[in-house]
Specification:
By secondary structure, this protein is an alpha+beta fold. It has helices spanning 16-30, 33-38, 55-64, 104-112, 121-128, 130-139, 152-156, 161-172, 196-209, 251-255, 270-286, 322-329, 334-348, and strands at residues 3-10, 39-46, 52-53, 90-93, 147-151, 177-181, 191-193, 212-217, 222-230, 235-244, 260-263, 291-300, 305-312. The protein has a 5-stranded antiparallel beta sheet. A 4-stranded mixed beta sheet has the order 3-2-1-4. The radius of gyration is 20 Å and the shape is globular. Bound molecules: adenosine-5'-triphosphate and magnesium ion (MG) (3 copies).
């Protein structure tokens, strides 16, 4: 009999819409000729308010490609799962950002005792939190940009802490610097600061997204990414590059058609590509990732330096996303990739 795949998408994050598009592509791949004989799709949609929706509703969301309004309500409550949840043999969570990519959902699926695609609780949480991630990378000897970490409480304190912090950031990192909430994705809440007043605005904005904030020295570099696939013996894909005309790879550039171009393979020297692949595998292991991850780098062409920027344990998975495209260029077609990820989930439970 067919293996029933619970495709879990949507979710309570700023990347809800991206998740719907990723799920559409995976649903299509599951209905491909070879996969359809092995797998049966059970789509489950998590609304923006966190409410889980049954397959009929989830299917309608996949077809329309649009989020479901949280008002129209014939739904069960937050923690009343649709009955079809009990029919799932293996989960394929494809939620990006908080409450999906950060270990919270992985904890729930672990408790359910049903295998799932991707990293477990630790790998997801460490991969998502940029402060924990950088600590793990540092421990693994991976080169990174200089950075400082702050808390919301420090930023919002009305004492004299804040002016001192501003001075310290300027002295340690200088301008431009990048201010980021620790636990987000798709560049949400990230700002580039070139002056003290931009820094203050950016810190205040980032603090509204997260309790933990990171400030990094800005580098002028090419942006290259590598896909990783596997569990204990993972493989690295060929390396891709992103080019764009905006100031940095912000949300608008990421999701406006035609604003960013993917170059696959990246036009970089082969020894640099090999170094990036090796660093990707080391980053994957450093955070205890499993199944899949996309690792993002800065390549400083002038000096030949490669700095790791971050890891994404549930990267964008639309037909146009970097992760599946890197594997396609490395010889694994989209439907095959989905099949391999499900098999890797099962392997981890043996
Ligand atoms: P993703 O959607 O890949 O999860 P994210 O929200 O986790 O992204 P980052 O990858 O950390 O965010 O940063 C987003 C973008 O901001 C980068 O792709 C790059 O263009 C720019 N950027 C971030 N940090 C720096 C830096 N230290 N120096 C220069 N540019 C940076
Ligand atoms: Mg990220
Ligand atoms: Mg991300
Ligand atoms: Mg990134």
């Amino acid at each position: 009999s067919k293996l029933r795949v619970g495709l879990l998408f949507g979710g309570r994050s700023g990347e809800h819409e991206v998740s719907i598009n990723s799920a559409k592509a995976i649903a299509k791949a599951l209905s491909s000729e070879t996969n359809a004989t092995k797998y049966q799709l059970i789509p489950i949609y998590i609304r923006k308010d966190g409410c889980w929706q049954a397959p009929e509703i989830a299917q309608a969301v996949l077809e329309s490609g649009k989020p479901l309004s949280t008002e129209s309500d014939d739904s069960v409550g937050l923690w009343q799962f649709p009955p079809s949840v009990n029919e799932v043999d293996v989960w394929f969570p494809i939620l990006h950002g908080p409450n999906g990519e950060d270990g919270t959902l992985q904890g729930l699926l672990t408790l359910m005792q049903v295998p799932y695609v991707g990293s477990g609780v630790l790998g997801s949480a460490v991969g998502m939190d940029k402060i924990a991630m950088k600590t793990a990378f540092k421990q693994a000897g991976l080169p990174q940009v200089p950075y400082m970490t702050l808390t919301r409480a420090q930023i919002w304190s009305n004492s004299c802490v804040f002016p001192k912090l501003g001075d310290e950031i300027e002295q340690t990192l200088g301008y431009p610097c990048f201010v980021k909430p620790a636990n987000l994705g798709s560049s949400v809440g990230i700002a580039k600061a070139r002056t003290r007043s931009e820094l203050e605005t950016a810190l205040d904005a980032a603090a509204s997204y997260d309790r933990r904030i990171i400030v990094e020295a800005g580098v002028s570099a090419r942006e290259v990414e590598c896909a990783v696939l596997g569990n204990d013996n993972p493989k690295a894909s060929i390396v891709g590059e992103i080019t764009f005309n905006s100031d940095f790879y912000d949300y608008e550039t990421k999701y406006t058609d035609g604003r960013a171009q993917l170059l696959i393979p990246a036009p970089i020297p082969p020894q640099i590509a090999a170094q990036i692949q090796e660093m990707s595998l080391s980053a994957f292991a450093a955070v205890d990732a499993a199944g899949l991850a996309r690792v993002d780098f800065f390549y400083v062409e002038k000096t030949g330096e490669v700095l790791i920027n971050e890891i994404n344990t549930l990267p964008g998975f639309t037909a146009f996303s970097m992760y599946p495209q890197l594997w396609e260029a490395s010889g694994i077609q989209f439907p095959q990739l989905v099949d391999q990820l499900i098999q890797l989930a099962l392997e981890r439970c043996q």
